[in-house]
Design the sequence.
């Protein structure tokens, strides 16, 4: 039996990516395997699907029409198969998640409930502040904080959290509590080395937002690392409130300069490939986050 549906899937991946290399990357195949699959499909159909040059790859009129019809048909097939699979056995399989360490603070405590609810799903969680390629990292879902950069991915908003300046009680007892942004000149400000404008923080002064230079003796490339330094008494740091809500409630950190808050905040999103939304295990995790993940405002 020929691999008819496999060839169609390969064709759609190449058409979507705009090149054989992109299709191979999306399907985790070699470029030569993709080339053979397309050649086999064109031979079976008796028509040319792609117009090839040394610099570009474009669909022919026949290729464009074939793509439109096959996209609809395969989507219907996947919907039927996924529905039958869910009815028979429920969500299952390996679910790879890549998340910022900062989101791990509210995320990790709720994961055992997901594992108990879906015992047939195996979680593989990696925590990293680095921007990842879902295909290269073989991740199903990425959970990220801040502005979205990859518009090719679907994004599900999980919440929004205001920013907060915090320090430990021990640090404030030793160095004093700042009363105005100008007082930060006498303090160690803990900063992120992976963000722009790392040498200034925004404040609302006189009805307008002013970015004020800050100074200190520590940079960190991880939000959770900077949080831990603040808890240990290393200085004043700036985080999404959700990231430090537990520390504030427990008294490990204290919020400072709240009267000068500029009103900014961070969005938290779950990112996934558009074609993966129908996967039962991915849909189950996204629905679970909707129900269980609490982002402190």
Sequence:
């Amino acid at each position: 039996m020929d691999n008819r549906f496999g060839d169609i899937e390969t064709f759609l991946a190449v058409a979507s990516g705009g090149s054989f290399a992109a299709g191979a990357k999306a399907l985790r195949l070699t470029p030569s395997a993709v080339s053979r699959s397309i050649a086999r499909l064109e031979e079976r159909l008796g028509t040319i699907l792609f117009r090839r040059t040394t610099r570009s790859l474009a669909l022919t009129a026949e290729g464009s029409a074939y793509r439109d019809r096959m996209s609809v048909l395969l989507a219907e097939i996947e919907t039927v198969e996924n529905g039958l699979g869910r009815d028979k056995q429920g969500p299952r399989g390996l679910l790879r998640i890549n998340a910022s360490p900062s989101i791990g603070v509210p995320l990790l405590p709720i994961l055992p409930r997901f594992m108990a609810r879906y015992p047939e799903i195996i979680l593989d969680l990696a925590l990293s502040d680095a921007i990842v390629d879902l295909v290269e990292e073989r991740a199903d879902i990425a959970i990220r904080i801040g502005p979205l950069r990859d518009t090719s991915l679907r994004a599900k908003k999980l919440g929004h959290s205001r920013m907060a300046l915090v320090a430990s009680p021990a640090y404030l007892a030793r160095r004093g509590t700042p009363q105005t942004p100008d007082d930060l000149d006498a303090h160690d400000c803990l900063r992120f080395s992976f963000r722009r404008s790392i040498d200034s923080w925004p404040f609302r002064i006189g009805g307008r937002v002013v970015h004020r230079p800050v100074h200190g003796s520590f940079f960190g490339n991880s939000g959770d690392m900077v949080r831990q330094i603040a808890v240990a008494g290393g200085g004043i740091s700036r985080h999404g409130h959700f990231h430090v809500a537990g520390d504030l409630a427990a008294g490990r950190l204290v919020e400072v300069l709240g009267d000068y808050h500029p009103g900014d905040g961070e969005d938290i999103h779950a990112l996934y490939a558009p074609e993966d939304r129908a996967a039962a295990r991915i849909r189950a995790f996204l629905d679970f986050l909707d129900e269980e993940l609490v982002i402190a405002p």
